[in-house]
Amino acid sequence: MRAAVLANLRGALPEKDVPAIEECVTELHEALPHKDDLTRNTVMVAYGGGKDSAYAVAFVRAVHLALAERHGATFTLRVVTMRHGGMPYQVMLNIDRTYQALGLYEDPDVELLLIERDRVVPFDRDRSMPHRLVAFNRTDMLMSGHRSYGDGRATFCNACNLNVASSFGVAARHGAGVDLIITGDSPQEQRDYALWIRQLARGAGQKPADSKKRFQGTLETLDGLAQAYFQEIHGGNAERIAERGVTSDVPATLEFFSIYDYTSYASGAHWRLLTDFLGFVFDEIAFNFTESDCANPALMAHLRGLRTERAYGRSYGEGIAQYVDFALELMRKKHFPEHLVEEIAGRYRTEAGVERMREAATRYAEDAFGVDTEQLVCMVYSPFAGRAANLHDYLAGEFPELLPEEDRIRALLAGKESHEGLAARLERLSGLSLTDLRALHDGPLWSPFADKGTQPGVLPLVMDSDPHKKIISVRRGTDGDKILDRVAGR
Q1: How far apart, in Å, are the Cα atoms of 67 and each of 22, 23, 39, 60, 102?
Q2: Range list of H helices, 389-457
Q3: How many helices (H) and strands (E) does the chain have?
Q4: CB under 8 Å to 338, separation ≥6 — which residues?
Q5: Mean pLDDT in runs of 10 for the chain (490 residues)?
Q6: Most-buried pick from 107, 150, 268, 270 (CB within 10 A)?
Protein backbone atom coordinates (compact mmCIF):
# COMPACT_ATOMS: atom_id res chain seq x y z
CA MET A 1 0.00 0.00 0.00
CA ARG A 2 2.79 2.43 0.93
CA ALA A 3 4.67 1.81 -2.30
CA ALA A 4 1.52 2.40 -4.36
CA VAL A 5 0.65 5.63 -2.52
CA LEU A 6 4.20 6.96 -2.89
CA ALA A 7 4.29 6.13 -6.60
CA ASN A 8 0.94 7.85 -7.13
CA LEU A 9 2.06 10.86 -5.12
CA ARG A 10 5.22 11.21 -7.16
CA GLY A 11 3.08 11.20 -10.27
CA ALA A 12 0.63 13.78 -8.91
CA LEU A 13 3.03 16.26 -7.31
CA PRO A 14 4.53 19.08 -9.39
CA GLU A 15 7.57 17.74 -11.25
CA LYS A 16 10.09 19.86 -9.36
CA ASP A 17 8.72 18.65 -6.02
CA VAL A 18 9.73 15.03 -6.69
CA PRO A 19 13.51 15.49 -6.23
CA ALA A 20 12.74 17.96 -3.41
CA ILE A 21 11.13 15.09 -1.51
CA GLU A 22 14.45 13.26 -1.40
CA GLU A 23 16.30 16.40 -0.29
CA CYS A 24 13.74 16.91 2.45
CA VAL A 25 14.09 13.28 3.58
CA THR A 26 17.82 13.82 4.08
CA GLU A 27 17.37 17.04 6.06
CA LEU A 28 14.46 15.76 8.12
CA HIS A 29 16.35 12.59 9.01
CA GLU A 30 19.17 14.76 10.37
CA ALA A 31 16.68 16.75 12.45
CA LEU A 32 15.08 13.71 14.11
CA PRO A 33 16.35 13.02 17.64
CA HIS A 34 16.16 9.20 17.42
CA LYS A 35 18.06 8.34 14.25
CA ASP A 36 18.96 4.87 15.52
CA ASP A 37 15.29 3.94 15.90
CA LEU A 38 13.17 5.99 13.53
CA THR A 39 9.92 4.56 14.87
CA ARG A 40 10.55 6.34 18.21
CA ASN A 41 10.11 9.73 16.54
CA THR A 42 6.76 11.47 16.28
CA VAL A 43 6.42 14.31 13.79
CA MET A 44 3.36 16.57 13.79
CA VAL A 45 1.76 18.54 10.96
CA ALA A 46 -1.37 20.68 11.21
CA TYR A 47 -4.16 20.27 8.68
CA GLY A 48 -6.77 23.00 8.84
CA GLY A 49 -8.64 21.54 5.88
CA GLY A 50 -7.75 24.24 3.35
CA LYS A 51 -5.90 24.03 0.06
CA ASP A 52 -2.45 25.00 1.34
CA SER A 53 -2.49 22.69 4.33
CA ALA A 54 -3.83 19.86 2.13
CA TYR A 55 -0.82 20.30 -0.13
CA ALA A 56 1.51 20.41 2.91
CA VAL A 57 0.05 17.17 4.29
CA ALA A 58 0.47 15.49 0.90
CA PHE A 59 4.11 16.60 0.66
CA VAL A 60 4.85 15.49 4.24
CA ARG A 61 3.20 12.14 3.53
CA ALA A 62 5.50 11.74 0.53
CA VAL A 63 8.50 12.45 2.79
CA HIS A 64 7.11 10.04 5.39
CA LEU A 65 6.92 7.25 2.80
CA ALA A 66 10.17 8.09 1.02
CA LEU A 67 12.02 7.93 4.34
CA ALA A 68 10.57 4.46 4.92
CA GLU A 69 11.62 3.48 1.39
CA ARG A 70 15.19 4.66 2.03
CA HIS A 71 15.69 3.44 5.62
CA GLY A 72 13.22 0.59 5.98
CA ALA A 73 11.40 2.41 8.79
CA THR A 74 9.87 5.82 9.37
CA PHE A 75 8.53 8.18 12.04
CA THR A 76 5.01 8.31 13.41
CA LEU A 77 3.14 11.01 11.52
CA ARG A 78 0.64 12.91 13.66
CA VAL A 79 -1.84 14.98 11.61
CA VAL A 80 -3.97 17.33 13.70
CA THR A 81 -7.03 19.43 12.86
CA MET A 82 -8.44 22.14 15.11
CA ARG A 83 -12.22 22.36 15.00
CA HIS A 84 -14.10 25.63 15.32
CA GLY A 85 -17.53 27.01 14.60
CA GLY A 86 -16.55 28.39 11.21
CA MET A 87 -15.54 24.97 9.87
CA PRO A 88 -18.39 23.48 7.81
CA TYR A 89 -18.97 19.77 7.26
CA GLN A 90 -17.74 20.18 3.70
CA VAL A 91 -14.25 20.81 5.13
CA MET A 92 -14.41 17.54 7.04
CA LEU A 93 -15.27 15.84 3.74
CA ASN A 94 -12.23 17.39 2.05
CA ILE A 95 -10.03 16.20 4.92
CA ASP A 96 -11.50 12.71 4.67
CA ARG A 97 -10.87 12.55 0.92
CA THR A 98 -7.27 13.67 1.47
CA TYR A 99 -6.72 11.00 4.11
CA GLN A 100 -8.15 8.32 1.84
CA ALA A 101 -6.03 9.37 -1.14
CA LEU A 102 -2.87 9.38 0.98
CA GLY A 103 -3.58 5.99 2.54
CA LEU A 104 -3.45 7.44 6.03
CA TYR A 105 -6.33 5.50 7.54
CA GLU A 106 -4.64 2.13 6.95
CA ASP A 107 -1.11 3.09 8.09
CA PRO A 108 -0.16 2.07 11.66
CA ASP A 109 2.52 4.79 11.72
CA VAL A 110 -0.08 7.56 11.40
CA GLU A 111 -2.20 9.35 14.01
CA LEU A 112 -5.18 11.40 12.80
CA LEU A 113 -6.50 13.69 15.53
CA LEU A 114 -9.15 16.35 16.08
CA ILE A 115 -8.43 19.11 18.59
CA GLU A 116 -11.56 20.49 20.24
CA ARG A 117 -10.16 23.16 22.56
CA ASP A 118 -8.44 21.10 25.30
CA ARG A 119 -9.87 17.78 24.13
CA VAL A 120 -8.10 15.43 21.70
CA VAL A 121 -10.13 12.78 19.84
CA PRO A 122 -9.48 10.56 16.80
CA PHE A 123 -10.48 12.13 13.50
CA ASP A 124 -14.02 11.22 12.52
CA ARG A 125 -15.50 12.78 9.43
CA ASP A 126 -19.03 12.51 10.80
CA ARG A 127 -18.35 13.59 14.38
CA SER A 128 -20.86 16.28 15.31
CA MET A 129 -19.63 19.67 16.46
CA PRO A 130 -19.63 19.60 20.28
CA HIS A 131 -22.25 21.90 21.81
CA ARG A 132 -19.70 23.26 24.27
CA LEU A 133 -17.37 24.25 21.43
CA VAL A 134 -20.20 25.97 19.54
CA ALA A 135 -21.15 27.93 22.65
CA PHE A 136 -17.49 28.79 23.26
CA ASN A 137 -17.00 30.16 19.72
CA ARG A 138 -20.39 31.90 19.71
CA THR A 139 -19.68 33.83 22.89
CA ASP A 140 -16.24 34.92 21.71
CA MET A 141 -17.67 35.98 18.36
CA LEU A 142 -20.46 38.06 19.88
CA MET A 143 -18.38 39.66 22.62
CA SER A 144 -15.51 40.49 20.25
CA GLY A 145 -17.94 41.84 17.67
CA HIS A 146 -19.66 44.05 20.23
CA ARG A 147 -16.28 45.53 21.16
CA SER A 148 -15.51 46.44 17.54
CA TYR A 149 -18.63 47.33 15.50
CA GLY A 150 -18.57 43.80 14.07
CA ASP A 151 -15.13 44.30 12.50
CA GLY A 152 -14.37 41.12 10.57
CA ARG A 153 -10.93 40.48 12.03
CA ALA A 154 -11.83 41.29 15.62
CA THR A 155 -15.10 39.38 15.48
CA PHE A 156 -13.79 36.13 14.03
CA CYS A 157 -9.99 36.01 13.79
CA ASN A 158 -8.39 37.26 17.00
CA ALA A 159 -9.81 34.66 19.36
CA CYS A 160 -9.51 31.98 16.68
CA ASN A 161 -5.79 32.71 16.18
CA LEU A 162 -5.18 32.30 19.89
CA ASN A 163 -7.17 29.07 19.82
CA VAL A 164 -5.02 27.81 16.93
CA ALA A 165 -1.87 28.50 18.92
CA SER A 166 -3.31 26.68 21.91
CA SER A 167 -4.31 23.72 19.73
CA PHE A 168 -0.65 23.33 18.73
CA GLY A 169 0.28 23.06 22.39
CA VAL A 170 -2.56 20.65 23.13
CA ALA A 171 -1.67 18.44 20.14
CA ALA A 172 2.09 18.57 20.75
CA ARG A 173 1.82 17.40 24.37
CA HIS A 174 -0.83 14.73 23.71
CA GLY A 175 0.14 11.17 24.62
CA ALA A 176 3.91 10.80 24.56
CA GLY A 177 4.26 14.18 22.85
CA VAL A 178 5.99 14.97 19.56
CA ASP A 179 9.62 15.44 18.61
CA LEU A 180 9.20 17.88 15.73
CA ILE A 181 6.51 20.06 14.18
CA ILE A 182 6.51 20.51 10.42
CA THR A 183 5.41 23.88 9.05
CA GLY A 184 5.01 25.39 5.62
CA ASP A 185 6.13 28.80 6.92
CA SER A 186 9.64 29.88 6.03
CA PRO A 187 12.18 30.33 8.85
CA GLN A 188 11.98 34.09 8.25
CA GLU A 189 8.17 34.02 8.60
CA GLN A 190 8.54 32.08 11.85
CA ARG A 191 11.03 34.62 13.20
CA ASP A 192 8.83 37.53 12.15
CA TYR A 193 5.80 35.99 13.85
CA ALA A 194 7.72 35.33 17.08
CA LEU A 195 9.08 38.91 17.02
CA TRP A 196 5.57 40.34 16.43
CA ILE A 197 4.24 38.38 19.42
CA ARG A 198 7.06 39.67 21.64
CA GLN A 199 6.42 43.25 20.48
CA LEU A 200 2.72 42.87 21.25
CA ALA A 201 3.54 41.60 24.72
CA ARG A 202 5.82 44.54 25.43
CA GLY A 203 3.22 46.94 24.07
CA ALA A 204 0.72 45.40 26.47
CA GLY A 205 3.11 45.92 29.39
CA GLN A 206 4.07 42.26 29.64
CA LYS A 207 7.48 40.64 29.77
CA PRO A 208 7.92 38.11 26.93
CA ALA A 209 9.14 34.63 27.81
CA ASP A 210 12.84 33.84 27.41
CA SER A 211 13.51 33.54 23.67
CA LYS A 212 15.81 30.57 24.40
CA LYS A 213 12.68 28.58 25.26
CA ARG A 214 11.77 28.56 21.56
CA PHE A 215 8.24 27.38 20.78
CA GLN A 216 7.41 26.86 24.43
CA GLY A 217 8.39 30.47 25.10
CA THR A 218 6.23 31.69 22.22
CA LEU A 219 3.25 29.80 23.64
CA GLU A 220 3.92 31.21 27.13
CA THR A 221 4.03 34.74 25.71
CA LEU A 222 0.82 34.10 23.80
CA ASP A 223 -0.80 32.79 26.98
CA GLY A 224 -0.08 36.10 28.71
CA LEU A 225 -1.53 37.98 25.75
CA ALA A 226 -4.58 35.71 25.69
CA GLN A 227 -5.29 36.36 29.36
CA ALA A 228 -5.08 40.12 28.80
CA TYR A 229 -7.07 40.00 25.56
CA PHE A 230 -9.96 37.99 26.95
CA GLN A 231 -9.99 40.15 30.07
CA GLU A 232 -10.72 43.07 27.72
CA ILE A 233 -13.31 41.10 25.76
CA HIS A 234 -15.16 39.32 28.56
CA GLY A 235 -14.56 41.58 31.54
CA GLY A 236 -14.00 40.07 34.98
CA ASN A 237 -15.34 36.58 34.27
CA ALA A 238 -12.35 34.71 35.75
CA GLU A 239 -13.59 31.25 34.79
CA ARG A 240 -14.17 32.23 31.18
CA ILE A 241 -10.75 33.90 30.93
CA ALA A 242 -8.94 30.94 32.49
CA GLU A 243 -10.42 28.44 30.04
CA ARG A 244 -9.24 30.57 27.12
CA GLY A 245 -5.55 30.41 27.98
CA VAL A 246 -2.94 29.12 25.54
CA THR A 247 -1.54 25.69 26.38
CA SER A 248 2.22 25.99 26.74
CA ASP A 249 3.46 22.91 28.65
CA VAL A 250 5.40 21.44 25.73
CA PRO A 251 9.09 20.40 25.82
CA ALA A 252 11.43 23.40 25.84
CA THR A 253 13.46 21.72 23.09
CA LEU A 254 10.52 21.35 20.70
CA GLU A 255 11.30 22.94 17.34
CA PHE A 256 9.78 23.47 13.90
CA PHE A 257 11.02 21.98 10.65
CA SER A 258 10.17 24.10 7.60
CA ILE A 259 9.30 22.54 4.24
CA TYR A 260 8.97 25.98 2.66
CA ASP A 261 12.12 25.72 0.52
CA TYR A 262 11.17 22.29 -0.83
CA THR A 263 7.64 23.00 -1.97
CA SER A 264 5.58 24.76 -4.66
CA TYR A 265 3.10 26.70 -2.54
CA ALA A 266 1.34 28.59 -5.32
CA SER A 267 -1.87 26.57 -5.63
CA GLY A 268 -1.81 26.83 -9.40
CA ALA A 269 1.38 24.74 -9.35
CA HIS A 270 -0.31 21.82 -7.61
CA TRP A 271 -3.85 22.15 -8.92
CA ARG A 272 -3.92 18.62 -10.32
CA LEU A 273 -2.70 17.21 -7.01
CA LEU A 274 -5.45 19.04 -5.13
CA THR A 275 -8.42 18.39 -7.35
CA ASP A 276 -7.59 15.15 -9.15
CA PHE A 277 -5.52 13.21 -6.62
CA LEU A 278 -6.74 14.51 -3.25
CA GLY A 279 -10.31 15.11 -4.43
CA PHE A 280 -10.33 18.62 -3.00
CA VAL A 281 -13.61 20.46 -3.63
CA PHE A 282 -13.84 24.25 -3.57
CA ASP A 283 -17.33 24.28 -2.11
CA GLU A 284 -19.36 27.50 -1.95
CA ILE A 285 -19.81 27.12 1.81
CA ALA A 286 -16.20 26.20 2.63
CA PHE A 287 -14.41 28.38 0.03
CA ASN A 288 -14.78 32.08 0.80
CA PHE A 289 -12.36 34.72 -0.40
CA THR A 290 -8.87 33.84 0.94
CA GLU A 291 -10.08 30.81 2.91
CA SER A 292 -10.83 27.33 1.62
CA ASP A 293 -11.53 25.81 5.03
CA CYS A 294 -13.75 28.39 6.73
CA ALA A 295 -17.12 30.02 6.12
CA ASN A 296 -16.43 32.97 8.40
CA PRO A 297 -15.18 35.31 5.63
CA ALA A 298 -18.65 35.14 4.06
CA LEU A 299 -20.01 36.32 7.41
CA MET A 300 -17.39 39.09 7.51
CA ALA A 301 -18.67 40.37 4.18
CA HIS A 302 -22.23 40.02 5.47
CA LEU A 303 -21.41 42.10 8.56
CA ARG A 304 -19.92 44.81 6.37
CA GLY A 305 -23.11 44.86 4.33
CA LEU A 306 -25.30 45.03 7.44
CA ARG A 307 -23.24 47.80 9.00
CA THR A 308 -23.38 49.90 5.83
CA GLU A 309 -27.10 49.30 5.44
CA ARG A 310 -28.25 49.73 9.01
CA ALA A 311 -25.73 51.85 10.92
CA TYR A 312 -24.66 54.03 7.95
CA GLY A 313 -28.08 54.26 6.27
CA ARG A 314 -26.67 53.30 2.87
CA SER A 315 -27.26 50.05 0.95
CA TYR A 316 -26.29 46.50 1.81
CA GLY A 317 -24.79 46.07 -1.65
CA GLU A 318 -22.52 49.09 -1.15
CA GLY A 319 -21.01 47.50 1.95
CA ILE A 320 -20.60 44.16 0.20
CA ALA A 321 -18.80 45.86 -2.68
CA GLN A 322 -16.38 47.48 -0.21
CA TYR A 323 -15.57 44.10 1.30
CA VAL A 324 -15.32 42.31 -2.04
CA ASP A 325 -12.90 44.93 -3.43
CA PHE A 326 -10.69 44.51 -0.36
CA ALA A 327 -10.85 40.71 -0.34
CA LEU A 328 -10.18 40.20 -4.05
CA GLU A 329 -7.12 42.40 -3.73
CA LEU A 330 -6.02 40.23 -0.80
CA MET A 331 -6.59 37.05 -2.81
CA ARG A 332 -4.31 38.33 -5.57
CA LYS A 333 -1.65 39.30 -3.05
CA LYS A 334 -1.80 35.71 -1.81
CA HIS A 335 -1.35 34.43 -5.37
CA PHE A 336 -4.69 32.70 -5.76
CA PRO A 337 -5.26 31.31 -9.24
CA GLU A 338 -7.22 33.83 -11.26
CA HIS A 339 -10.09 31.40 -11.90
CA LEU A 340 -10.65 31.17 -8.12
CA VAL A 341 -10.56 34.95 -7.81
CA GLU A 342 -13.10 35.11 -10.63
CA GLU A 343 -15.29 32.49 -8.96
CA ILE A 344 -15.55 34.65 -5.82
CA ALA A 345 -16.06 37.85 -7.82
CA GLY A 346 -18.82 36.15 -9.81
CA ARG A 347 -20.79 35.31 -6.67
CA TYR A 348 -21.21 38.99 -5.84
CA ARG A 349 -21.27 40.53 -9.31
CA THR A 350 -25.05 40.92 -9.65
CA GLU A 351 -27.79 42.06 -7.29
CA ALA A 352 -29.24 38.56 -7.45
CA GLY A 353 -25.85 37.09 -6.52
CA VAL A 354 -25.46 39.47 -3.58
CA GLU A 355 -28.94 38.57 -2.35
CA ARG A 356 -28.23 34.84 -2.70
CA MET A 357 -25.01 35.17 -0.69
CA ARG A 358 -26.86 37.27 1.88
CA GLU A 359 -29.32 34.45 2.36
CA ALA A 360 -26.50 31.88 2.54
CA ALA A 361 -24.62 33.93 5.15
CA THR A 362 -27.80 34.40 7.18
CA ARG A 363 -28.41 30.65 7.22
CA TYR A 364 -24.82 29.91 8.10
CA ALA A 365 -24.80 32.35 11.03
CA GLU A 366 -27.86 30.59 12.40
CA ASP A 367 -26.55 27.06 11.76
CA ALA A 368 -22.96 27.54 12.93
CA PHE A 369 -23.37 30.03 15.76
CA GLY A 370 -27.08 30.16 16.56
CA VAL A 371 -27.12 33.90 15.80
CA ASP A 372 -29.91 35.55 13.81
CA THR A 373 -29.98 38.73 11.74
CA GLU A 374 -31.40 40.84 14.56
CA GLN A 375 -28.45 39.86 16.74
CA LEU A 376 -25.93 40.56 13.98
CA VAL A 377 -27.45 43.99 13.39
CA CYS A 378 -27.20 44.69 17.11
CA MET A 379 -23.53 43.73 17.00
CA VAL A 380 -22.57 46.06 14.13
CA TYR A 381 -23.90 49.01 16.14
CA SER A 382 -21.94 47.97 19.28
CA PRO A 383 -24.63 49.67 21.40
CA PHE A 384 -23.60 48.41 24.84
CA ALA A 385 -19.78 48.58 25.05
CA GLY A 386 -17.90 51.61 26.32
CA ARG A 387 -20.64 52.76 28.69
CA ALA A 388 -23.26 52.21 25.98
CA ALA A 389 -21.71 54.92 23.79
CA ASN A 390 -23.76 53.92 20.73
CA LEU A 391 -26.99 52.97 22.48
CA HIS A 392 -28.93 56.04 21.36
CA ASP A 393 -28.01 55.56 17.68
CA TYR A 394 -28.98 51.90 17.89
CA LEU A 395 -32.37 52.56 19.45
CA ALA A 396 -33.11 55.48 17.11
CA GLY A 397 -32.19 53.43 14.05
CA GLU A 398 -33.71 50.08 14.95
CA PHE A 399 -36.16 50.38 17.87
CA PRO A 400 -37.41 53.95 18.25
CA GLU A 401 -40.19 52.65 20.49
CA LEU A 402 -37.48 51.92 23.09
CA LEU A 403 -36.06 55.45 23.10
CA PRO A 404 -38.21 56.46 26.10
CA GLU A 405 -36.55 53.55 27.96
CA GLU A 406 -32.99 54.67 27.17
CA ASP A 407 -32.20 55.95 30.66
CA ARG A 408 -33.65 52.82 32.22
CA ILE A 409 -31.59 50.63 29.86
CA ARG A 410 -28.45 52.52 30.83
CA ALA A 411 -29.25 52.06 34.50
CA LEU A 412 -29.90 48.36 33.89
CA LEU A 413 -26.55 47.94 32.11
CA ALA A 414 -24.77 49.82 34.90
CA GLY A 415 -26.30 47.48 37.49
CA LYS A 416 -28.23 50.32 39.11
CA GLU A 417 -31.67 48.99 38.24
CA SER A 418 -33.39 45.63 37.79
CA HIS A 419 -36.07 45.10 35.17
CA GLU A 420 -36.71 41.51 34.07
CA GLY A 421 -38.77 42.36 31.01
CA LEU A 422 -36.29 44.88 29.67
CA ALA A 423 -33.37 42.58 30.42
CA ALA A 424 -35.03 39.74 28.54
CA ARG A 425 -35.64 42.02 25.54
CA LEU A 426 -31.97 43.08 25.41
CA GLU A 427 -30.85 39.47 25.73
CA ARG A 428 -33.02 38.48 22.77
CA LEU A 429 -31.79 41.38 20.66
CA SER A 430 -28.12 40.71 21.35
CA GLY A 431 -27.93 36.96 21.92
CA LEU A 432 -25.98 37.65 25.13
CA SER A 433 -26.83 37.35 28.80
CA LEU A 434 -27.36 40.40 30.99
CA THR A 435 -24.08 39.52 32.72
CA ASP A 436 -22.27 39.75 29.38
CA LEU A 437 -24.07 42.97 28.45
CA ARG A 438 -22.93 44.52 31.71
CA ALA A 439 -19.37 43.34 31.03
CA LEU A 440 -19.57 45.07 27.65
CA HIS A 441 -20.92 48.22 29.28
CA ASP A 442 -18.10 48.38 31.83
CA GLY A 443 -15.34 47.61 29.32
CA PRO A 444 -13.77 49.35 26.33
CA LEU A 445 -15.17 49.94 22.85
CA TRP A 446 -12.51 49.75 20.14
CA SER A 447 -13.16 52.16 17.31
CA PRO A 448 -11.74 52.18 13.78
CA PHE A 449 -12.25 55.94 13.82
CA ALA A 450 -9.90 56.72 16.73
CA ASP A 451 -6.37 57.93 16.16
CA LYS A 452 -3.74 55.20 16.25
CA GLY A 453 -2.25 54.75 19.70
CA THR A 454 -5.05 56.51 21.57
CA GLN A 455 -6.83 53.31 22.61
CA PRO A 456 -5.05 51.25 25.29
CA GLY A 457 -5.20 47.46 25.43
CA VAL A 458 -4.31 44.32 23.50
CA LEU A 459 -7.22 44.55 21.03
CA PRO A 460 -6.13 47.95 19.64
CA LEU A 461 -2.51 46.74 19.44
CA VAL A 462 -3.56 43.71 17.41
CA MET A 463 -5.89 45.69 15.16
CA ASP A 464 -3.36 48.47 14.50
CA SER A 465 -0.65 45.96 13.51
CA ASP A 466 -2.97 43.78 11.42
CA PRO A 467 -1.90 43.69 7.74
CA HIS A 468 -5.29 42.39 6.59
CA LYS A 469 -7.08 45.73 6.56
CA LYS A 470 -7.81 48.61 4.23
CA ILE A 471 -8.72 52.21 5.02
CA ILE A 472 -11.51 53.55 2.83
CA SER A 473 -13.70 56.61 2.58
CA VAL A 474 -17.40 56.11 3.30
CA ARG A 475 -20.47 58.31 3.58
CA ARG A 476 -23.04 58.12 6.34
CA GLY A 477 -26.60 58.59 5.17
CA THR A 478 -27.72 60.08 1.88
CA ASP A 479 -26.15 63.49 2.36
CA GLY A 480 -23.75 62.82 5.24
CA ASP A 481 -20.11 63.78 5.37
CA LYS A 482 -17.48 61.35 4.21
CA ILE A 483 -15.39 59.68 6.89
CA LEU A 484 -12.46 57.29 6.93
CA ASP A 485 -13.38 53.73 7.81
CA ARG A 486 -11.67 50.37 7.96
CA VAL A 487 -12.47 47.15 6.10
CA ALA A 488 -10.78 44.06 7.50
CA GLY A 489 -11.17 40.36 7.07
CA ARG A 490 -9.91 37.33 5.20
Answers
A1: 8, 11, 11, 10, 15
A2: 391-398, 406-413, 420-430, 434-442
A3: 22, 8
A4: none
A5: 95 92 97 96 97 95 98 98 94 98 98 96 96 95 97 95 96 96 92 92 93 91 96 92 94 92 74 94 92 95 98 96 97 92 97 97 96 98 97 98 97 95 97 97 90 86 91 87 90
A6: 150
